[in-house]
Amino acid sequence: MTTGALLDALIEIAGISKSEFATDTFITPSSLSLILSGKRLPGLKDKEVFCKRSASVLTEHIYKANCFPKFKQIFPVIYDFNSQHELETFLQLALEYFIDLDQALANDQDLDYPDHGKLFLGDMRILNYFCVTLSDYFQRQPETDLVVFSSLPIFSHDYPPFLRRMRFTGNNGDSHVKLHQAIFPLENDSGQLVSRPVDTIFKIQDFCDLNFWQAEASLKKNYVLLKDHVLIFFDQLLDQSWSMTVLEHKNHVNHLYEEIKTRLTRQMSFNRQQFQQQREQGKNCFKELLEQKISQVFNFVPIAYMVNDKELAKIEDSAEERRIILAFFEKILSEDTRIYFSDLCFRTIADEGKLAVPLHGLVELPPSDRIPYLNRIVNYYEGNSSHDKFKLIYINAPRMCLICSPELSLIYTVDYNFKNEKVHFFHKKNLCDSFLRQIENEAVEIAAFSMELWDDFLQNRL
Description:
Layout lengths: L2 H12 L3 H7 L4 H9 L6 H19 L14 E3 L4 H23 L11 E4 L1 H18 L5 E5 L15 E3 L8 E7 L13 H9 L3 E7 L7 E4 L3 E7 L5 E6 L2 H13 L1 E4 L1 E2 L1 H9 L4 H6 L5 E4 L9 H4 L6 H16 L3 E5 H10 L1 E4 L3 E4 L2 H17 L6 E5 L5 E6 L2 E7 L6 E7 L4 H11 L2 E4 L2 H11 L1
Parallel strand pairs: 3-5, 5-6, 12-13, 13-16
Antiparallel strand pairs: 1-4, 2-9, 3-7, 6-10, 7-8, 8-9, 11-19, 12-17, 14-15, 16-20, 17-18, 18-19
């Protein structure tokens, strides 16, 4: 993006005419026209005054509570502004950033090999520059993948607190940003888990293709690396204030990229294609789950727990693989596992006949088979001595399934078209307690499943 393109977009967002903007910023319409067309840039002496006046005028017309979505086309990474002053300082820095970039290009500076880095101090200045920089690189080459590596402790209270304010433009998982996030062994992870780790995953995953990796402790450096572009370090000073260092020299960036790759020791996220590749190599995550003692399962997507071999054969040819899947479902149903499921799961099965088999596909039931399938669950409930096993949750939640054991947590996510699937494994991390507290706070109701509830559900369907 150029200075002219940014300013033109901001004037449009502000809903004012270019002549009004020129008048309010004390420049002539012809000067503004030259800036917008890229034929002229504010001089070095005038840059700060121009950016400050422009930001002030634009903010007057744009700012209101929750106004950040207005900028989603030009700043896909942004934050929610708490005050008019915050928006004004953000816009001022953004204008200065792109003017500096355009001036460097106009002067034939080699932007790939600068002989210096940049250091930023102050939470808000760091947050502003970080959002503008990520947005800039995100939009430079939308047709090619932007590969990002991060060691920021996103699940820990050690994460820079001001970065939690960031908001991302949703892409429903269809994004050219490929984020590889490092997770460290428990003995090297000093910070406590944040209260809503599952929300953190969905917030990031909606913006990019998110992949977790087990990493060596030597990578705990609070970095973000954009392959072939920039390396950003965050650090705390002696007074606990934060600093951010930005390095753009390609030799340094590429060297550190190669170092990082060698220290990512274990892939922890898989889509369906990657899962199939793992199967071909003799690895199967369902076999690993069969060895775990599963304590809780939270279902916000209709998982095909009661599917039979004939139904499963419609999407899976391998008899051995079907045996493993059915054994896994039976394990959850028969052992001392507490099963939570949302009312939406029942409604999706009854209305659409869709049953998800994670990383394998979708079993679709014809209308005549949907209530009989649900009756299998009810019959299982009636035959189970512990009627407290099943809990019904009335809550609005993303389509996901969380499986918890003392040694492992697994999050399965799928979009609303049941196409983009992803499974994330978290070894030695039990996400159950934090997630259970969250749904207890947010759910309209959590009820033990009963025949009365089932009869009411059927009555509403007849």
